Amino acid sequence: MTDTADSLNRPAIRAVAFDLDGTLVDSVADLMHASNALLAELGRPPVDLPAVRSFVGDGAPKLVERVLAATGGIPAAEEAARCLSRFLSIYEADPSAHSVLYPGVAGTLDALAKSGLRLGVCTNKPMGATARLLDDLGIAGFFTAVVGGDSYPTRKPSPEPVLGLLGRLGVGPAETVFVGDNEHDVAAARAAGVARVLLVPYGYARVPLDGLPHDGILDGFADLPGRLSC
Length: 230
Known about the structure:
Its EC number is 3.1.3.18. By secondary structure, this protein is an alpha/beta fold. It has helices at residues 3-9, 28-42, 49-55, 60-70, 77-93, 105-114, 127-136, 160-169, 183-192, 224-227; strands at residues 15-18, 25-26, 100-101, 118-122, 145-147, 176-180, 196-199.
C-alpha cells in the first residue's frame, strides 16, 4: 500500500495535546525562585537556573527531591513531605511572575482553535499551579481540557494522563497529535497510541531529541499548523 493510500485511510486529526513546561511556557525561573525560597528557609544554599532546568519534567515531588539532594541531602520522609508542601505553597502563590510563553505560542494556539481543532494540556505540574499559570499568561481559553500531575494516580511517562485528557476532549488517540519537548512526552504519547508525536527544538529534554521515536522536530512553535497535515 502506498503512502498516499495510507494517508487517505488515516482518521483526520481532530485534536492537539500539549505538554506545558518547556513546550508552551518557559517556567524554569519561577521554579528556581520557589526552590530558593524554600532552601533559604531551610538554611541551605541556592540552586541556579541550569540545575533547576535539569530537575524539571517529573512533577513537583521529584523536583523538590532533586533540589534537596543537590543542597545537602534528602531528609526523612515526614520532613521531605513538609518541604514539598511548603514548596507548593510558595510556587502556587505566584507561578507566573518570571514565566513567559515561548515565541509564537499565543498566535499559533489562536489559529489552531479557530480552525476547529480541540486543544488540551497534559502536564506533570500540579493542577493548581497549571490553571493559574495558563490564566495568568492569557492562554487558558484556548484549551478544552487540561490535566495535571495530580489529576490521575500516575504521571507521564505513563500513558494514563494522556488517555485521560483525550477522554475529556472526546477524541481518540488516532485523531490526536501530541506536542512536547522531552523523553517523557514521547513515551507517554507513544504508549497512548496517538497518531503523531512532534517535538519543539527548545525545552527541558535531558536526552538528545534525535534519539527519541518522534515524528518530527518543529523549527519553532509557529511551524506547528503546517506540520499537522503532513
